[in-house]
Amino acid sequence: MSIPFSRVAWGRPEEATHPDTLKCALAEFISTLIFVFAGEGSGMAF
């Protein structure tokens, strides 16, 4: 199943360096780390 690239929304280049975008990316990264380490710790407990 492939997604046609004509239907993907890309946005503007200046959005990549917007402070809110960077803050959201950092929040996603931190929450992913918490999720991964919690899952790994749960797996090690059993």
From TrEMBL:
Main subcellular location of this protein, as a coarse class: membrane
InterPro entries: Aquaporin-like (IPR023271)
Subcellular localization: Membrane
Claim: Transmembrane helix is one of the keywords in the record: yes
Any Gene Ontology CC annotation: membrane
Topology term for the membrane: Multi-pass membrane protein
Membrane-spanning intervals of the chain: none
Taxonomy, superkingdom: Eukaryota
Keywords associated with the record: Membrane, Transmembrane, Transmembrane helix
UniProt protein name: Aquaporin
